[in-house]
Amino acid sequence: ITDPANDVSPAYVDVTSLNSTLSGQTLQAILHLRDLPTQLTFHSAPEPEYRWLVLVDVDNNPNSGSTDSRYKGAEYALLVWSDPGVSGTMSIQDTVNHWVMYPDAGGGWQSEGEAVLAVDSVADTMLIRGDVPGITQQSRIFFEAFDYAGGARRSDLSDTCGTGVVPPTATPTPPSSNDDFNAATLPALTD
User: Fold this and answer.
1) Model-level pTM greater than 0.85?
2) DSSP 3-state assignment of 53?
């Protein structure tokens, strides 16, 4: 999925593309951002200040799954977010939460299990990997990136959805090495 650069500010929520691979029910998604620093400043926001989501409409039916109009029927999300109330300049990799989530009947999200996260500020990518029950190559995927921005709420939400999640043809190359990435924490995808 591609998305225009410079359609939202700040650059760390401006997604330019989303690439994905699927091995069994393990989805690996790489968000390419216009610029992704190693650290962000957290301002004690009353809600999650930063959020990046890769949403999955498992059954490719926008009328099932999430009832939130922004999330177009997603049954699951690979979700990266900061806790409310966090304050200071800190590493994205070490500060944010990363989980596979599913929508509940009350409009919230519940945890399915932990996701793997690798932030690469050199390549401006965020790799998120997690097990998504029921996902197939026909499932729809799309994204949202969000910055609370002192209440201004800036968001980049994909206008298009991709189908046909790509199966791996070889072990994917993880993001380039830097201080925020430890290749040993990312098990290789296999068929």
Assistant:
1) no
2) strand
